[in-house]
Amino acid sequence: MLYDFSEKVASCLDSKEISKFIISEAMRLIKADNISVMLLNNDSDAFEVITHSGKETYSQDIMRLQEGVAVSVMDAGKAKIINNIKSDSNYASKIDDLISVMFAPLKVKDRSIGVVKLGSRSQLEYAAEDLKIFAALASQAAVAIENARLYENLKDAFITTVHTLAETIEKRDPYTGGHTRRVTDYCLAIGRMIGLSDTDIHRLELAAVLHDIGKIGIRDNVLLKDGRLTDEEFEEIKKHTIYGEEILDHIKHFKNVITGVKYHHERYDGRGYPDGVKGEDIDITARIIAIADTFDAMTTDRPYRKGLSLEAAFEELKRCSGTQFDPELVNAFLKAFENKPV
């Protein structure tokens, strides 16, 4: 039983999902009306309820009472049973409407990162065996939650570094300031509208941020030209998709975003570049970026022309739907704007 639970939490890198696992498993094994997982916020020194089951509410008074018990459990580093909260002299004030409760520390090595609380609204006689099972679940979850939090911090740092890299490249062209951020926002709006998974949203975000990284290989007199490009210059600009692929191919963590970067100038009808891929053979991240990139280009002022209005740009997307762009993704983008301006 604990082995299966351990396997499940060890393979998860989302602290909220891990908390849901421990709640589900504890509710299956131990009679309870409510379970909550509280993590200590190191910045505020306060507990935050990240997941809970039952109808519990979290007023300031209740949180203060729970924190008193939680802190004592964390300090002791040991799980605790209180079978009648009202008759316990240390905890005479009731904790919400629970009567019998158990607390177990979320302990990593010699450090507690939070507490799990389990309780019943009717008086029960939780036994040592219940406490042992509950503490074992909390111990397994604690390591997984700590790993997940470390991963989340690393992921945030990674995303920040990627954004900084993209913005540094963007500085070469003062007229495209904010382009990467806007394209990323548009892409994420489309991705969420069509219900992409969290994993695919993360991949889409990275590809959107890095979609123009290959422009680092384009000469300034071409990239920064004020007027329209000659055919020869346009052929050079087109190489930025290949340069982007070559740059990212050397970095393991970017392998799964290469198709979005390389193919964001492909067309739905197969008349794009660099490879003339068409339809759904084009990676979905590239199809999304194509819409977002073009929309931002149309609505942004350039030295040689003024940007289109939103309405005119929407009409242009509709006109090119099914030829240049994936029609379902165009509809998703327009719907995202209808619901809430991106």
**Low-confidence runs:** 59-63
What letter string, H or E per element, gives the SSE order?
HHEEHEEEHHHHHHHHHH
Shape: elongated
Largest sheet: 5 strands, antiparallel
Percent of residues in beta strands = 5-15%
Report what the structure shows.
This protein has helices at residues 2-10, 15-29, 60-76, 128-170, 179-193, 198-209, 220-223, 231-238, 240-248, 258-262, 284-299, 310-319, 327-339, and strands at residues 34-41, 46-53, 80-82, 100-108, 111-120. By secondary structure, it is of the alpha+beta class. It folds into 2 domains: 2-148, Beta-Lactamase (2-Layer Sandwich), CATH 3.30.450.40; 171-339, Hypothetical protein af1432 (Orthogonal Bundle), CATH 1.10.3210. Helix 2 (15-29) packs antiparallel against helix 4 (128-170), helix 5 crosses helix 11 and helix 6 (198-209) crosses helix 11 (284-299). It is elongated and about 85 Å long.
List strands and helices in order, with pairings.
Elements: H1 2-10, H2 15-29, E1 34-41, E2 46-53, H3 60-76, E3 80-82, E4 100-108, E5 111-120, H4 128-170, H5 179-193, H6 198-209, H7 220-223, H8 231-238, H9 240-248, H10 258-262, H11 284-299, H12 310-319, H13 327-339
Antiparallel strand pairs: 1-2, 1-5, 3-4, 4-5
Helix pairs in contact: 1-4, 2-4, 5-6, 5-11, 5-13, 6-11, 11-12
